[in-house]
Fold:
Amino acid sequence: MLEIKNLHVKLEEEDKQILKGVDLTVEAGKVHAIMGPNGSGKSTLSYVLSGRDGYVVTDGTATLLGEDLLAMETEERAAAGLFLAFQYPVEIPGVGNMTFLRTALNAQRKARGEDEISAGDFLKLIRAKAKDLQIDADMLKRPVNVGFSGGEKKRNEILQMALLEPKMCILDETDSGLDVDAMKLVSEGVNALRDEGRGFLVITHYQRLLDHIHPDVVHIMSDGRIVKTGGPELALEVEKNGYADILEEVA
Amino acid sequence: MALAQAKLDLTETRLAEMPAPTGEAGWAGEARSAAVARVRAMGLPTRRDEYWKYTDPATLTQAAAPRAAVFDADGEVPLYADIDRLKLVFVDGVFDPDQSDDLAMEGVEIERLSDALKKDIHWARDLFGVLETRGQDPVERPLAALNTGFATDGIVIRATAKVARPISFVYLHRDETSDAMLHHVVRVEKGAEVTVLENGPAAARFNKCMEIDVADGGAFHHVRAQGRDHERRAVTHMFARVGAGSTYKSFSLTANGAMTRNEHVIELTGDDAIAHVAGAAMGDGANAPFHHDDTVFVTHDAQCCESRQVFKKVLRNGAEGVFQGKILVKPDAQKTDGYQISQALLLDEDSSFQAKPELEIYADDVQCSHGSTTGAIDETALYYLRSRGVPASEATDLLVLAFLAEAIDEIEDPRLQDDIRSRLEQWLSRRRRS
Structure:
């Protein structure tokens, strides 16, 4: 599904190398988690994969289903099936959430050569998906993420994911800013999307999200590299002993 | 003070070209000569005048109208198409009865200006050129006086009740060198209400003046869209006197146009009066120059009045935007609530926006605020939209519409709001395809 090889990335504005050779393969149907201390490059990896400005790839490759991600525009990556759930979802005053969701869905359908969805069908679809995430009509009407609580913003991210049905989902610290109930709700939303044809990359600081979204593989990232890979037990080890022990061990 | 020779020459050359109106009643003739005298005394504006510092009036004052190609709307649904309205059509500034609806409607008297000016007794006598004259102080507006002096066509409206359907002026442009002048007069009687719609470029060059007198408890609503002909030029003046407990609301949409100068001169003369003026302008200098100037002067001359000015401009490819807005609060205008915001979204570094917000307050118990911002598009929002698959150009348009929304929201009638919004979307999507 997602294949990253020897990925090196630096900041555009300053001569600072953030990723120093990331190798990572996420298979269809699997959930991979990336854990790591602050500043290890986890979020940078998610931004680079989604095509955010401000980063320069100096070496390596990243492909989605064999297609070169790095050669595509941000919107082409989305249409190819990549989805990033933001750590900090962006507020867009003046753009209604419904308009935003319909525009995004239709843009992706159009890019794939499919017909646009009718207003009536869209309404049915969005109501059903929103209900599962306990998103009410008011949240759909309001401007995108404006005045949303932390939990509402994250639920809105998962709603977008459910609507757009991407092939590869990257969740960047989706647990940050969530209380226990919200975390459960968001996790259920993610788990409902798990299927044979879809891959997940879950970026998190803490093990607690992984109690709800069970990973198949856990990676530890440090200083721009994946330094250790293991099963779910690796996350428990981090929770128990912190990163220091693991980092010392691999140093 | 004597006028500078250059100004004097400019003014006399232009006046010599203007055909004097004939066959009008005595009072109309007096109003005409007084207006011409005002033009002579003030002189036509030049770039050296403070009030024209940011907008060069040369093409508005020169004798002949510069050529403007007629915009091809290419089968688009015209504005207000679904709104039930009384349609009055002007072609290159001349009223066309054949394309227009019958002038009769319940609760309102509608007449051609040329007919009204021929009558010995007419209500318009108290307003024609009168509000324009009041609006010449403290800032001179010679192009409005020129209009009073020479405009031979236009509509006079006297609303005596709540008028059910909007009165819609449709300004068609057919001749590439047409030079049109229209003068409308609107009187809203006590407790009456009327909505006036305007759309279209009217001519290659258009000078329009509207005088609006809203009596106590009346309401005047105005929504206009100025034509999209890239090379068209327009100077417009709205002179309004707003009485106690009455409402004046005006919204303008501008897309394209080499030159647009829209002036609003509003006097709140009765307690608890409300005046809202708003504008959304979208300019692209790629195919032709774009220059758009909103100049607003609101005078609070009574207590507990509210005024709002909301102006938004989206500019790209060297487009120029100007805002000059003033709130004057006279000594007795206590409990005034005045608000003014002008904002520009510059989509590139070639475009520019000049703002001159002014407050002049002589009362001590008032609430007045003003703000002006100039900014680029929100890159983070753009990235977020693109990350969901929305192409960059479409994402930009979504953000453009969002930016203009605050001005469009000032329109009171939701049907007109929707109409303006959907038309803007249509224009933007057509632009993306071309």
